[in-house]
Specification:
Elements: E1 11-14, H1 20-36, E2 39-42, E3 49-57, E4 60-68, E5 70-74, E6 84-91, E7 94-98, E8 101-105, E9 110-114, E10 119-123, E11 128-135, H2 137-140, H3 147-150, H4 160-173, H5 181-199, H6 203-228, H7 237-243, H8 248-256, H9 262-278, H10 288-294, H11 300-311, H12 315-327
Antiparallel strand pairs: 1-3, 2-5, 3-4, 4-11, 5-10, 6-9, 6-11, 7-8, 7-10
Helix pairs in contact: 4-5, 4-6, 5-6, 7-8, 9-10
């Protein structure tokens, strides 16, 4: 495992700015041998290139990696732990071999590898993106029925927990700042739960994971769905539930775990988006009614009433204040809705 920094912030590394002749050796020494404990070989006639975002959490390391022109081997001299590695293909195909088994993964598919065993990966396409999730053996093994049998076996893209895991990890990859220790521990637990469910958790572990990691990942996915469809006037709990293949009641129950409702979350997000547009100079030519419609409001009186209740000012007041004070070089700070992104 990798030592987490104090703020659990993502680390981003790339070969893009390096001279072509130095890329392979940099990646080999700094990342492959130093972090992943792998040997790197060049792919003939292809320029090596790689980018990685790494988030180290308590008991979980998450790496989102794009690379080309390279292939990897785990050799006996680089084995230094018995950690388990879930490798999820995001784009491109590659074949992995370990324990005498061979598996080829395409986009959306995954497999489990052991850091205590030799093996190698052969690229099937030049450009590849993958998600690597590394967890200590003594953490994951008790949650899975037979972890050794799961190594180098295919995990199809249709596994629900795997799809949620990819979305959850992507949110961590997009972070610009670190997590607090409590949030980092919670995120690590959720990731561990989803990995176990993807592989095949025991009955008891699955029951715990479904009430913990799976629930958190579903709620995060639903919130992302809402944010991406705020302007749709048919953004109802029924339509969202249908897209996520769950019941409307279950969607409501997920929000109830945070002490709120689906409707209050949608309302807060729409009001927040409206406030952003009202204070954005690029939208200064938009009328208040156009902005209200853009963020999904169909009733202007309801929009004005709820906006004023939240911000203590009308939309027109916010716009006038922004224009006046920006001209005077004064920054205006208006109330911000309660946190709706967690």
């Amino acid at each position: 495992m990798i030592s987490s920094n104090a703020g659990f912030a993502p680390t981003r590394l790339s070969t893009d700015s390096l001279p072509e002749r130095d890329r392979l050796e940099f990646w080999r020494e700094a990342i492959a041998r130093g972090v992943a404990k792998l040997e790197v070989d060049p792919v003939p006639d292809h320029l090596p290139s790689a980018r990685m975002t790494l988030v180290a959490l308590p008991g979980v390391d998450i790496a989102c990696l794009s690379d080309s022109g390279m292939c990897y081997r785990r050799t006996p001299d680089l084995i230094d732990s018995d950690d388990l590695l879930l490798v999820v293909a995001l784009a491109g195909a590659r074949t992995m071999k370990q324990l005498g088994r061979k598996v080829t993964t395409c986009a959306g598919e995954a497999t489990l590898l052991s850091c205590a065993e030799t093996g190698h990966a052969i690229p099937r396409e030049l450009q590849r993106r993958r998600l690597d999730i590394r967890i200590p053996y003594n953490v994951l093994s008790p949650m899975v029925g037979d972890v050794e049998d799961a190594i180098c076996r295919p995990i199809p893209s249709t596994v629900d927990a795997l799809r949620l895991l990819v979305g959850y990890a992507a949110a961590l990859d997009d972070l610009d700042i670190g997590l607090t220790p409590s949030l980092a521990l919670s995120a690590a637990t959720h990731i561990q739960d989803l990995v176990a469910l993807s592989i095949g958790a025991t009955r008891d572990a699955a029951a715990i994971a479904r009430g913990r990691g799976l629930r958190a990942a579903r709620l995060k996915a639903i919130k992302a769905d809402i944010l991406g469809n705020l302007g749709q006037h048919d953004l109802t709990v029924s339509n969202v539930a249908l897209r996520h293949r769950i019941t409307p009641r279950y969607v409501q129950m997920l929000f109830e775990t945070e002490g709120r409702t689906f409707s209050s979350f949608v309302l807060d997000q729409r009001l927040s988006r409206a406030h952003q547009l009202l204070t954005d100079p690029d939208h200064a030519g938009w009328t208040v009614s156009a902005i209200a419609f853009e963020v999904g409001f169909g009733d202007l009186s309801y929009f004005h009433r709820t906006f004023r209740r939240l911000y203590g000012a009308t939309p027109a007041d916010i716009r006038r204040g922004t224009r006046q004070d920006s001209g005077n070089g004064i920054e205006v700070r208006t109330p911000i809705p309660r946190d709706v992104t967690q």
